[in-house]
Amino acid sequence: MRVYNFSAGPAMIPLPVLERASAELADWRGSGMSVMEVSHRGKDFVACAAETEAALRLVLGIPDNYKVLFLQGGASGQFDAVPMNLTAPGDQVDFINTGQWSKKAIAAAERQGQVVNVIADEAASNYTTVPPAASLAPTPGAKYLHYTPNETIGGVEFGYVPQSDAPLVADFSSTILTRPIDVSQFGVIYAGTQKNMGPAGMAVVIAREDLTGHARPTTPAIWDWQAMAESDSMLNTPPTFGIYLLGLILDWITQTGGLTAMAERDKAKADALYAAIDSSALYSNPVAKDARSWTNIPFTLADPALDAAFLEGAQEAGLTNLKGHRSVGGMRASVYNAMPMAGVQALIAYMESFEQQH
């Protein structure tokens, strides 16, 4: 039986995509082989990768002066790759700290020898807020400003795009493909694929051309954006199954109305779940209302002693992976693109029933 998987990642993949991949798995494009078995240098897979890139460019509206890369190492690999490609040791960089993934990116920049200026840190709210846009004061001469549009663990999301004279670098892992964005506002966008773009193990990097070609000599070749761009992300054997499945997901997004329709569905799911939490005497959400994530919704029970019973009952009801991150506790429901409204409604019905019982 298929369950409603509320995991923050690896997350649900659209059922039509899984069914299509299943039908093609043993014999892809009449080759007599799985897509996982064909050569990445063969014309069929080279065409597949090109089709996936073209589809991503179309769906996201990526301008021609941006490179699109399919890289291994997930978003965490890019924490180090960003400073390796954009700076020399000792350069100043700006960060906005809104939670755990921001902190990891900051630690990586410091590890790479940067002078890190944290121009906003939401520690005072226990990372349940984002800084007001007008309060940001970027550092003159900084090489880039990095922020995390959506903090997966804390469920905090920016409602605006920060402004800076320096290139804006953003970890879009939990937000990418959930709504239209203006890519031209960013110098670099990177995202792990295990939330809205397919299986774990791959990162998509979208980098403005003028920001490539400056990697330090010590940068590993597989994280050198220019080297990977020149080889069409095939300097080494690429994550072939991830590239293939991303192509299917992009086709599914296009067939279901594109990013405008996706945004309407995702916001409706989030609104319904937040409304259920806010109207409850048992559940609460700690995040400021103007900083609530569409895709990662944490909530706590008034009596933490009920947590185990809540999770056990949810599992029995086919609602899985609702336990909150170990650093936060409570519950977390991740409702990415592949989560249908029916899954959210099933969770709300269970929450209401559990509250009545307890």
What does this structure look like?
A 7-stranded mixed sheet has the order 2-10-9-8-5-3-4. It folds into 2 domains: 15-255, Type I PLP-dependent aspartate aminotransferase-like (Major domain) (Aspartate Aminotransferase, domain 2), CATH 3.40.640.10; 259-357, Aspartate Aminotransferase, domain 1 (Alpha-Beta Complex). 34% of the residues lie in helices and 16% in strands. The two termini are 28 Å apart. The protein contains 9 helices and 14 strands. The protein has 358 residues and is α/β, with parallel strands linked by helices. It has helices at residues 15-24, 43-60, 74-86, 100-111, 225-230, 240-255, 258-278, 307-316, 341-357; strands at 4-5, 66-72, 92-97, 115-121, 145-147, 150-151, 156-157, 168-171, 188-192, 202-208, 283-284, 296-301, 319-320, 331-334.
Task: Put the structure in a nutshell.
By secondary structure, the protein is an alpha/beta fold.
H/E topology pattern: EHHEHEHEEEEEEEHHHEEHEEH
Tell me the CATH topology of the largest domain: Aspartate Aminotransferase, domain 2
What is the mean predicted local confidence, pLDDT? 96
**Biggest sheet, open or closed, and with what strands and sense?**
7 strands, mixed
Q: So what's the overall shape?
A: globular
Percent range for helical residues? 25-40%
* CATH-defined superfamily of the largest domain: Type I PLP-dependent aspartate aminotransferase-like (Major domain)
Number of domains: 2
Binned strand content: 15-25%
Instruction: Report the count of strand segments.
Output: 14
